[in-house]
Amino acid sequence: MLLTSGSPTVQQGIVAIGHCEYECFNFLVLLSCKRLHVGNCLRCELRTGNGAYDDAAPGQIPEIRIEACKPYEMGFGIGRHFEAMIRSRVANDPHLSSTLLPYAKTKQGQRLVQLLSENNRERYPDYWDELRGLADGSGVPFLSIILINFRKEIGPFLPDIRARRIVEEPDQCSDILLCSQELAVMVHNEDGDGSLENHVYFVHATLENGTTFFAYTCAGELPSCCFGFNSHGVAFSLDSVPPAPEEVEPGGIGRNFVSRDLLQSTDINDALQRTRVASLSAGHCYNIMDVNVRKIFNVETASRGRSSVREITGEPFYHANMYQHLQAVKQITHESSVHRVKRVSELSMSTLEEMLKVLGDDSNREFPVYMQGPQQYTLCTAIFDMNQRSLIVLTGNPSSRCVLRNISMIPLEV
């Protein structure tokens, strides 16, 4: 079905961007009508963390729900609704205007961005279309959206060493994993720089193939470079790892595209296979759970097809932002990870309560597990609980157990 283009027209208080037999309405009116169609069979609802159809209140995370949409349309819908947030994220990103955009205008930068674009578009055309829709919907230049999504793949090639070190600084996430008969959980601190505060949202999408996913998403990026799960019972969280610049392949596959692909996984084996990308540019750490077979794995990856898979059993496993079991990969050692790993090794993690206390630990004021600035902040904490088949998102220090969202994973109910 073709959507006719043209300038917007207003009909009965609704802004239309074209017409087809489903009536194609613009996202500007969602707060009043709560559902719409753009192109082929797109339905959308907007919610905040407490279920209200309104802008998110302080402490809440806004949410968009989209059903049966094509990739470009999904990206466009997300971009249009969160236009102000995405524009604000782009304007406040500490590296985009000062470093990444100027670099992208150089001959070296143009070649690298072109190579990244060509390779990722070829491997993941649908996700590329989502990014195009996100840019068009938000009105943000496509180049800015691309650079935010490829910042970790571009950072090692910046000519200014000081700028390179800043851009390469990992997002300081932490995970505790355990899979015993009594307790099977992934508990994740989502950490990021100050520019991400109030620049995140939940995406709850049902794809054309029937798969539904729920993803915590940074404004302007693909779902999800943070954590999420789908209706097949596959869940994941992510930890940055810092390969040395010589370990990074120019123009390879970006980590944001791999994690977006994980949301399509049908089971644990499919998810593990999707992390094994021979043409990966840099590296990443994936914590993956399958509630149907009661298994958890930690996966560390690097360029040139290197990866290591560790199955999690009855011994608690803590992962910060450093390679811990993938051998022969040169990495940048960050003091924060070294200090966090040392501190966590001194604490017990045998119960969920103990895990939350560990992830809320701030006894080391310079390098805490739970971060409160000035550069890095713990934005929220996610608990994937296999026994309960649920995702619980906490706000504030996780030891206080202040619940922001409680979502059933199977069946997926939000």
TrEMBL record:
Residues of the signal peptide: none
Pfam families assigned to the protein according to its UniProt record, in alphabetical order: AAT
Domain Peptidase C45 hydrolase: 184-399
InterPro entries: C45_proenzyme-like, Peptidase_C45, Peptidase_C45_hydrolase
Highest taxon, organism lineage: Eukaryota
Protein name, UniProt field: Peptidase C45 hydrolase domain-containing protein
Biological source species: Riccia sorocarpa
